[in-house]
Amino acid sequence: MKLTTMTQISIDGVMQNNGAPTEDHPNGFERGGWALGKGDDETRAFITQTYQRAEAFLFGRRTYELFADSWGSIDQMRAHPIGVALNEAPKYVASTTLTAPRWEDTTVLRGDLAAAITELKAKPGGELQVHGSGALVRWLLENDLVDEMTLIVIPVIVGLGARLFPETGPDLALDLIESRVDSKGVTIQVYRPAGRPRYATA
Predict the structure, then answer these.
(1) What is the pLDDT of residues 58-96, one digit of tens each?
(2) Do the domain assignments include residue 202?
(3) How far apart are CA 175 and CA 193, in angstroms?
(4) Nearest residue to 61 (alpha-carbon basis) of 4, 125, 113
(5) What is the dihedral of CA 133, 138, 142, 146, to 10 degrees?
(6) 201 within domain boundaries
(7) d(CA 5, CA 173)
(8) DSSP characters over 11-36
(9) Total structural domains in the chain?
(10) Helices 81-88 and 41-52, interaxial angle, to 10°?
């Protein structure tokens, strides 16, 4: 399977709490819900179709629990095409502490995570998709396990919050393989990792 990621980010790279506005209030983050209603019908269709072509899903624990409490539990969300895709496909969650996942068809990956994901990628099929899961996405990129990365860039500057890419971290060159902008200014950029960047020499 091809490992792909899809992340909604702001212009300044924030990915935290793009959905429900009250999700992160206990942590002091009060700018949630900044991506709600920002894309047009074409972008929403693109996102839905992406979920529908997944062979399986891979999550970090926090995103897994958020999805389990929404797409996996709320009848209206379960009936949505994204909910149907999530509930019908195998789900994998990278966690050292989760012992009893309550969402059906979930496997917890423990131990050598790189080996486990490499084994999943070796299976025949379409895409092993990662949605949200910022810490996991960063780790996957650092370990050269990402085959394709989709960024949905929302035209807003959030100003604070967890960012997809940290202030300091490994460098990575990317090849742009698809790009579009919708009628509301949301851009979709699909990249393929291409090794390390080349830098100017003296």
Answers:
(1) 999 999 999 999 999 999 999 999 999 999 999 999 998
(2) no
(3) 6
(4) 113
(5) 50
(6) no
(7) 16
(8) TT-B-TT-S-TTTTGGGT-----TTT
(9) 1
(10) 20
- Distance between CA 132 and CA 140 in Å, rounded? 13
Question: Whole-angstrom Cα distance, residue 195 to residue 197?
Answer: 7
Helices and strands in the chain: count of H runs, count of E runs? 6, 8
| CA-closest candidate to residue 103, choices 74, 70, 72 | 72
In this predicted model, which residue has the larger pLDDT, 202 or 192? 192
Residue 11 vs residue 38, higher pLDDT: 11
CA dihedral for 32, 83, 94, 147, sign (positive or negative) = negative
pLDDT digits (tens, 9 = 90+) for 133-172: 999 999 999 999 999 999 999 999 998 888 999 888 889 9
161: Cβ contacts below 8 Å, ≥ 6 apart:
14, 15, 16, 17, 29, 31
| Three-state secondary structure string covering 93-134 | EECCCCCCCCCCCEEEECCCHHHHHHHHHCCCCCEEEEECCH
C-alpha distances (whole Å) from 175 to each of 118, 150, 168 are 22, 12, 21
Question: 51-86 b/e with 16+ CB inside 10 Å = b?
Answer: beebbbbbbbbebbbbbbebbbeeeebeeeebbbbb
Assign residue 30 the CATH number of its domain: 3.40.430.10
- Domain contains 199: no
